[in-house]
Amino acid sequence: MGIDRRFLHDISSPLTTVHLNVENAVILLREGKPGEIKDCLEILQVAVTQLKRITGMIKEKREELIEAEQK
What we know:
It is built from 2 helices and no strands. The chain is an all-alpha fold.
């Protein structure tokens, strides 16, 4: 598998997780049950953690590409 393809594969899993978690939080918020606010916060915290992971992966890839261009 090529480097770019591997990167896209590696990043697609956390992106899918973020997507599903945010969708679930939206559904819970739309239902408007007060007890589910805590659940939403937990779901969104997982999404934030995944976004941080994705951001780190993109930063690493960007630095790798810049380094390769400078050679």
